[in-house]
Design a protein that fits this description.
Blueprint (H helix, E strand, L loop, with lengths): L2 H7 L1 H7 L3 E12 L3 E4 L5 E9 L1 E5 L6 E4 L3 E4 L5 E4 L14 E5 L2 E7 L4 E11 L2 H8 L5 E3 L7 H17 L4 H23 L6 H7 L3 H10 L7 H7 L4 H12 L3 H19 L4 H7 L5 H12 L3 H5 L7 H4 L1
Parallel strand pairs: 1-9
Antiparallel strand pairs: 1-10, 2-7, 3-6, 3-10, 4-5, 4-7, 6-11, 8-9
Helix pairs in contact: 1-2, 1-7, 2-7, 4-5, 6-7, 8-9, 10-12, 11-12
């Protein structure tokens, strides 16, 4: 099955497939009670904490403390600062104040605490650069707690965490790559479980993905964003009338279909300009604009920035993830 057909068949799966992560930081932690650590905000990144043994509490402003046990995984999707500690009274210094063993540019080992009950964790901060991932992550709650002790998922979660712990501890060749890939699996599974069980996932854009017609339209757009989509072309794919499709898309997504297409294309363009160092002419051509000037006008209208500013790195980092 080709990617476009697969995306149209499983819109939620296509959204999860966009969660291609690039690691900003990974670390293995060996804590002993009493212990605590404060983690800084990392805008545009998703924090994850996998507990391989013992337990702790996760505290973030505006949310109830989250109690984590062995086999549990917690996500902080919006990169907010937060604390991990063994108990409510434990002192939590900044991670920058705790001695760390630097294994590589992106991998560290932390040993910290008072010598009591032990807790083992694998933690990381990852960035998600696909526009569909930005949209999905932006709708997630402040914290997602995935309990690995549930009967349905206990075996695979524990097995994945055990393998992750072994790779993080032994640091065999390609261990960092293994931890990265296993982290991807755990993060996607935690988000998938939230999508399947939380009523909040049935509202707005996420709710539109559940709709058999509009969800398919969104998936088609994301699977082939450079195609010259029109309301007529999309409605034809869905065997809907033009007016019915346009009205339903706007109702569920809270944005007209062509506005959605244009914004997605400009987000992709920003990534090509910023990360791939593509020229403005190349991006205009990839998006089938007739001229650089036409593309530049559309880009500035949607993003508020010129393509040249983004390519030159004059884009505020927070703006990357605001959409």
């Amino acid at each position: 099955m080709d990617p476009v057909t697969a995306a149209a068949t499983d819109p939620l799966g296509a959204a999860l497939h966009s969660l291609r992560m690039s690691g900003s930081f990974y670390g293995r932690s060996e804590f002993s009670a009493p212990w605590g650590v404060e983690l800084p905000p990392m805008p545009g990144c998703l924090w994850f904490h996998a507990v391989t043994s013992g337990g702790c509490r996760l505290e973030i402003e505006g949310a109830e403390p989250c109690l984590l046990g062995a086999g549990d995984l917690a996500l902080v999707p919006h990169g907010e600062g937060h604390r991990l500690r063994s108990d409510p009274a434990a002192f939590a210094p900044s991670i920058y104040e705790i001695p760390r063993e630097i294994v590589s540019d992106r991998y560290e080992v932390i040993r910290h605490g008072g010598g009591g009950a032990a807790t083992g964790m694998v933690c990381g901060a990852v960035s998600l650069d696909h526009p569909a991932a930005d949209r999905l992550v932006g709708l997630l709650p402040k914290v997602i707690h995935h309990e690995g002790s549930t009967a349905l998922e206990q075996d695979w979660t524990q097995s994945t965490l055990r393998l992750m712990a072994v790779e993080a501890r032994t640091l065999r060749p390609a261990a960092e790559t293994m931890v990265t890939r296993l982290s991807d699996i755990l993060v996607v599974q935690a988000i998938r479980s939230w999508l399947e069980t939380d009523p909040a996932s049935r509202a707005g854009w996420l709710g539109a993905l559940h709709d058999p017609q509009i969800g398919r339209a969104i998936a088609l757009i994301h699977a082939d964003p450079t195609r010259d989509w029109t309301v007529e072309a999309l409605s034809r794919e869905l065997a809907m009338s033009r007016s019915a499709f346009a009205a339903r898309f706007t109702e569920l997504v809270d944005e007209p279909a062509m506005g959605y297409v244009t914004r997605l294309r400009m987000q992709l363009a920003a990534g090509w300009l910023r990360d791939d160092r593509a020229t403005v002419a190349d991006v205009a051509d990839r998006l089938n604009y007739r001229s650089e000037a036409a593309f530049s006008r559309a880009f500035k209208r949607v993003t508020g920035l010129t393509p040249g500013a983004v390519r030159a790195g004059r884009e505020p980092r927070e703006d990357r993830f605001a959409a």
